[in-house]
Specification:
alpha+beta; elongated; about 325 residues; 2 domains; single chain; five-stranded antiparallel sheet
């Protein structure tokens, strides 16, 4: 991520305890930028009451960030203190703190604030354990948005929530994005400005071991003023609000982290509307390059498929569900 001014730049390192500054625009629960005597960047959430038991039950261990519940002083009580251990990750830590500020804006009760903060930290734990500690590219944002569109269809149309999330293989970067039962589905997206062709990134992507194999293409249009438009952050929040099982929510967070996603303000734009959706059955005769038919010595191919040429393979989406 590109270096940028952050609140800690203007906070002096104290000789003892902390130097703190109230976060501007924060809500009812007090939030602070802070520095400790070692110059570490801190984010502090002030809490009313004793939350020791809640913290012990739900506290995550996050690489690079210390998460502590401490007594702030005799008058202010407890605080959740996030401490950045490596100064080089300051920009990334700032993005985490910004999402916390936004998420806690309307929160009135300290137990709720603590629960939300710890849930965010669990998602960041999955993100920091992954290989992509950077912003997703525009192409990756569209790709993840498309996969989330299909994930939502899957648990609303076919599978229970847990099985649907477990069927999402995209973050694992194996051959297809979704595999459930004897069915595989590869998801592709097009922007509203792109020509009608999709990029196949490897010789494995259109070769499946399942009997039923489909290619689904979403056309996404950036329409920020539309009531139907969703950003990537909003698409994730919608799914999180619809999932009712805590373990499934945690698994979703792990898979999003593996994909390289964690909520950041940078993902509030663009805001997409699904302006088109097409499904194709991948069977014999479908134009593709696959590993089992490649000449010896050729590997790591990528190519485009023109949607006009695969129109004869178009099918109703209901066929994915066996309809």
């Amino acid at each position: 991520m590109t270096s940028r001014p952050v609140p800690w730049d203007d906070i002096r390192t104290p000789e003892r305890d902390y130097n703190v500054r109230l976060v501007g625009g924060s809500g009812i629960v007090p939030l602070y930028w802070a520095k400790d005597v070692e110059g570490h960047c801190l984010f502090v959430i002030e809490l009313e009451g004793d939350h020791t038991d809640q913290f012990r039950k739900n506290s995550p261990s996050v690489h690079g960030i210390r998460v502590d519940l401490r007594m702030l002083d005799a008058t202010r009580g407890q605080g959740l203190v996030l401490t950045l251990e490596q100064h080089v990750d300051k920009d990334l830590f700032f993005s985490l703190c910004q999402t916390l500020v936004q998420s806690l804006q309307e929160v009135k009760e300290s137990p709720v604030a603590l629960a939300i903060a710890l849930a965010h930290m669990k998602r960041w734990k999955a993100f920091l354990a992954g290989k992509k500690k950077r912003l997703l590219s525009a192409e990756e944002i569209r790709g993840l948005f498309g996969e989330l569109q299909f994930l939502r269809m899957l648990y609303r149309e076919q599978l229970d929530e847990k099985t649907a999330v477990e069927a999402w293989c995209g973050p694992d970067r194996i051959q297809q994005d979704f595999i459930f039962g004897n069915t595989a589905v590869e998801i592709k997206t097009l922007s509203g400005r792109e020509r009608s062709a999709v990029r196949i990134s490897s010789e494995d992507q259109l070769e499946a071991l399942c009997d039923d194999f489909f290619l689904m293409v979403f056309r996404l249009s950036d329409m920020p003023e539309s009531e139907r438009a969703l950003s990537l952050n909003e698409a994730v929040r919608r799914i999180e609000s619809e999932l009712s099982d805590a373990d499934t929510l945690e698994e979703l967070g792990v898979r999003l982290g593996a994909y390289g996603y964690v909520e950041m303000r940078e993902y509030d734009k663009p805001r997409f509307v699904v302006s088109g959706q097409h499904t194709y059955r991948v069977v014999d005769g479908f134009p593709r390059l696959i590993r089992s038919a490649m000449p010896d010595g050729i590997a790591r191919v990528s190519y485009d498929i023109e949607l006009e040429k695969i129109a004869p393979f178009a099918c109703d989406t209901a066929q994915i569900w066996g309809g």
